[in-house]
Design a protein that fits this description.
about 210 residues; alpha+beta; Aminopeptidase; eight-stranded mixed sheet
């Protein structure tokens, strides 16, 4: 019998992580059409409103009900504006492990939202769901994503050579597929204990940990 995650929301001081709703579709379509999202993810390009609607209202809920994982729309607590998405996938219910992916809207970058939302999900996954491992994979050239992994306490475990296909710009302004190495990171419950003892580098740490202390 397949296990599933509960249908829940997670709150921090600045953010609410919740299931996607129909009202998120326009902002989701805009966010996923960003150039960096196109470059570093496998989402369709161009990313249309139809793609956003299908993801928000069909594919994302199915991730949870099928037992594959869970998808959170990340919104600002005060404005309710969509700032990103966090996706737990490749869930192994026997090993109690999952892989995390995330996207942040262009206008919301630099505010620590990726770190804050990943930490909140990790705390919930370890404390409430009793999981033992969270995995993160970053393309070798995606330094911004690697910084999120480092700031959230992840440990680099090695490299999968030539394992990822990203996208890069061509001379005529189009896109072409580019192969890249993948860096494997992991986060365990004890890693979060060590992270709490370190000075907070941005407001995301305190905001995420305060709700789970």
């Amino acid at each position: 019998m397949t296990s599933t995650f509960p249908d829940i929301s997670i709150s921090t001081d600045r953010l609410v992580l919740r299931p996607f709703e129909a009202q998120d579709v326009p902002a989701l379509a805009e966010m996923m059409s960003d150039e960096l999202v196109t470059a570093w993810t496998s989402v369709p390009h161009p990313y249309t409103t139809a793609h956003a609607r299908d993801w928000a209202l069909r594919e994302a809920p199915a991730e949870r009900t099928s037992g594959r994982g869970i998808v959170f729309a990340v919104t600002e607590f005060l404005t309710h504006r969509l700032v990103g998405c966090v996706h737990l996938h490749h869930t192994d219910w026997r090993a109690l492990s999952a892989e995390v992916g995330y996207v942040v809207a262009p206008w919301a970058r630099g505010e620590g939202y990726a770190c804050e939302s990943v930490l909140a999900v990790a705390e919930w996954l370890f404390n409430d769901q009793k999981f033992e491992r969270l995995e993160l994979r970053t393309a070798a050239d995606n330094t911004a994503s690697q910084q999120v992994a480092q700031k959230t306490g992840c440990i680099s475990e090695g490299v999968l050579r030539n394992a990822w296909i990203g996208r890069g710009r061509t001379g005529d302004g189009g896109w072409t597929e580019l192969r890249s190495d993948l860096i494997i990171w992991s986060l365990l419950p004890e890693d979060l204990d060590e992270l709490r003892e370190q000075p907070a580098g941005d407001p995301g740490y305190a905001a995420a940990f305060r709700d789970w202390s």
